[in-house]
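Justification of resources, computational component.

The compute hours requested in this renewal are based largely on the per-chain cost of generating structure records like the one below. Each record pairs the submitted sequence with a full structure-token output. That output is archived, and it is also reused by downstream analysis tasks.
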Amino acid sequence: MFRRDRRPEPDQIEVTLGSRASLRGELRCDGSVRIDGVVEEGSRIETLGNVIIGSEARVAADIKAETVSVAGAYKGNLEARRVELLAGGRVWGAIRVASFLLDEGGYMHGELVMLTEEAAPEDPWATPAT
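The structure output for this chain reads:
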């Protein structure tokens, strides 16, 4: 990431992509990102803060962030500590996350992998080794 003497708070929005803007490429920052416009396929967003995908946003990018809130449309691979799929939010893709919130009215089509620092529990369906 970028090196600075003083980093912004993770919830301080440092980058805003407005509803009439689009982005293609790579975005890296230390603060939070709010997207209300379009992020084109093949893009990548990486931040130490949060990503907020507004209700009118269309995002087709890989995202790595602390927390991601989705109220619009998202497609891609997402890795975060926490993901919030809000009412009206739609996700297509793979999510790797420690904490996942799904509001009533949210839609997901893809893979959800729950990560944990603790050892994974034993598979109750596995056949014991002999």
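The chain has one domain: 13-114. The CA atoms of residues 9 and 124 lie 42 Å apart.
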